[in-house]
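Journal club prep — side note

Before the paper discussion, L.F. wants everyone to see what a predicted structure for a comparable chain looks like in token form. Sequence:
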Amino acid sequence: MASTGHAPTASEYIVHHLGHFSTHHQDKIVDFTIINMDTVFWSVAMGVLGCFIMWLAARKATSGVPGRFQAFVEMVVEMVEDQSKSIVHGDRRFIAPLALTVFVWVALMNSLDFLPVDMFAALFSLLGLENVIPYHRVVPTADLNGTLGMSLGVLAVVIYYNLKIKGVGGWLHEWLAAPFGIWMAPFNVLLNLIEYLARTISLGMRLFGNMYAGELLFLLIALLGSMATAFGFIGHVIAGSMWAIFHILIVFLQAFIFMMLTLVYIGQAHEAH
């Protein structure tokens, strides 16, 4: 945080850490006219890291007794394969790898929440960049713009599979005839539109809400350490440790839920009403 001549208050500290390094100031909670460059950077970085981990596992895979790393990756791959097989009834040559990519990518982005909240602010201050990069948020999934962008990507995949499997005519007929029959076409179109919008928005909002709450709680726990009392220090250590352990479950659970909902929506595209 740039020097202001006095120590920041609790609210100033939280507001600063919740700010993004963006192309310009964001006034609305959702604004696709700006680019949160920290979100883009860490999203791409975790995507590259995830691809590298999978490539490394495939490169070192052996037919003999697997090592710990290979065994762990095989467990993840088998879990995703089993889930995709039970949900999607059709050609899964692209869908299963897509689900695996989504799970690994979201899990890595969520895991960035375990980094110390003041680590990058201290690093930028050490390098003399606190005025060049005044704000920086590390967790891309705690940015609503990022999670809604991901859910829009899932929507594009769902539309693609609807068109691929049912054809343009079949998909349009489904919009007009399901669920109440062709004579209720206006109501069917409205309900289908609401369904697509609700699924897309809720998919992004669910991941954002959980990760944003976790990030905010980490900041509140960090503020306990600023109290020059034994209660503040002990509370900071105990509460921080307990929440970090519990947050491990949240990080991977949210990645699993996002992957499962992606599979469910793609699976529904394979089914006719």
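L.F.'s comment for the group: The chain has a mean pLDDT of 86. Keep this in mind when we get to the figures.
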